[in-house]
Structures are given as C-alpha cells and as structure tokens.
Amino acid sequence: MGFIDEAKFFVKAGDGGNGCVSFRREKFVPKGGPNGGDGGRGGNVIIRADKSVNSLIDFRYRSHFKAERGSNGQGKDMHGRKGKDCIIVVPAGSIIKDSETGEFIKDLTEDGEELLVAAGGKGGFGNPRFASGSNRTPRIATKGKPGEEKWLKIELKLIADIGLVGLPNAGKSTLLSRLSAANPKIASYPFTTLEPQLGVMHFKYHESCIIADIPGLVEGAHQGVGLGHKFLRHIERTSIILHIVDMADELCRENFVTIEKELNYFKEELADRTRIIVLNKCDLVDEERQKELREHFTDKNQNVIVLSCESGRGIDNLVEKLEEILEFQDSDFSG
User: Fold this and answer.
1) 70-103, pLDDT tens digit by residue?
2) Is 282 labeled as ligand-binding?
3) CB-based burial of residue 246 (10 Å sphere; 0-12 exposed, 13-18 middle, 19+ buried)?
4) Residues forming a β-bridge with 196
5) Which fold has domain 6-156?
6) 303 is in an annotated binding site
C-alpha cells in the first residue's frame, strides 16, 4: 500500500442523551414527585499521537469518525450513561488543521499527546430540574445538545533525526539500506522511491536514531514540480541532512546546487541545518577525479564523505561522522 501523508476526515461527537419525564409511583402515594434522570453527555472525539504509527494509511479506508451518543435518562432518578469517546490514533508528527478554513489547530509531536477536536453534547435535563413551588409535578424535560462536528485535515511530517536528500538515482535508497534496518525498493532508474522510507540506525556509543529517505527532488520541486513538493515537508524536522551526490555524473556540481536551492527555497531555516555531503559511487570514478571533487565540495562544507553505497567502501567513515555530530548536538543541547 502507498504511503499516505495527508488526509481529510469528518468528526462527529456524540449527542447528549435526552432528559426523562417520570414520577414516583409508590403505594398509597397517588401523586409522587418527579424522578426523571438527566441524559448522559455525548462522547468526545480525541486525536492521539502514537510514535509506533508512521503512516496515515487508515484514513484511506475511513474518513468519518463518530463518538457514541449519551444514554437517555430514566425514571427513579437514573441518569443516562456518558457516550464512549472516539479515539483517533495518528503518527507523532501529525499536524491538524481545519479543513474548511485551513486554520492551524495543533502539531502533535509527542508520543501519547492528545487533542480534543469535537466535544460531546450536554445531556438534557430530567423533569425534577423544573419543579418549583407553583409546579411540583412538571411534565417537561429537555433534549440533549448535539455534539460538535467538523471536517479536519491532517498532514504528516515524519519525525526523523537524519534525512537523505539528492536527485533521483543518486543512491539514497541503497545508502538507507546500508545504514539501517530498512529494506527500501532499489533500482537503477529515477523515482524508484515514491514514498518516504524510514529506517532505524544503530551506533556503538550513541542511542539509535531514525533515518528517512526523502523521495528524489528535482528542479522546481518547491513549486510542485516532480514528486518533491509533496515530500519536502518531511525534511523539516531532521537535525542532520545527508546530501547524496552521484560523483560519477559529470553534472554532479550543478546537481548539488539544484538541490540546495530547492531546500532553501522551501524553507530558509534549512540552510542552518547540519549538512554532510556524501559523494557516492567512488568505485566508478578514478582517484584524480575523486580528489578534485572532494576539494571542490570541502570548500562548501567541511563534512564531506567519499564512499560507495554499492561496495560499502567508506560507509564506516560516514557512520563515525554521524555519531560524532549527534554526540556534539546532544552535549550542545544539554549545555
């Protein structure tokens, strides 16, 4: 099944139960007082973030979510039961918006974080509520209030520590499979990766982290060209960006500039993210060309790693560099 990273859905909280008109019927008491119970409150609709979920795939099959109605009140002062809440489980990293207005509601980033999106209606009053000195036997009760309802939009931004970017066929999927426990589809033609791929990366001394392969970007991606526009948002939460460059491509310098421009056009703050330039396919390039390209890209970024995803050469150097940067970021953050 395909990766779903945005969806529109309808939520309806439960209506409140109706109040009850009832009177005590006791032996030798011909006119007992009112004893109708109140209606129960309708259930709420709540969205809950769960870090073990990483796709909105469930929204492909279901677009309406409804909480339970409150029970009606009954005689003998029996109040209606509250309706059951409807819990919608979404991935951590989900942004909730009003579908009609586009208004931002909340960014659910923490595991277990909850958001009340539709409140249940209040239950109606039973007839004892209307008793007075002048009317001791009221024959009125009120209906429950309707629960809130609305159309919402959900957008998913993957929460990953490391993001892989680069032109299609630069070798990102192969690198992801080398670095993590992921098994993405790999083939030697552009746009093999049609959805973001997540993997878990393990280190010797640092705790494991999430690494994401962002589908191939092309020139104009920030304006909706190619597949990039749909997936650029997933790079926003990463703290380290690995820019994969196919050094066997004669236009690799121009290709690098193309992707960097797209990232900066999309969000200027991405320019401040830690970058590692990964010069891939060194096994297809002679030593002189490797040296030339290494020097060229080192002028742009001190973090340059030459490797071959295919043969595995240089992968250990990249892993050590990533661990070093993550350790530094942790100490910098704690300090």
Assistant:
1) 999 999 999 999 999 999 999 888 999 999 999 9
2) yes
3) buried
4) none
5) Spo0b-associated Gtp-binding Protein; Chain: A, (2.70.210)
6) no
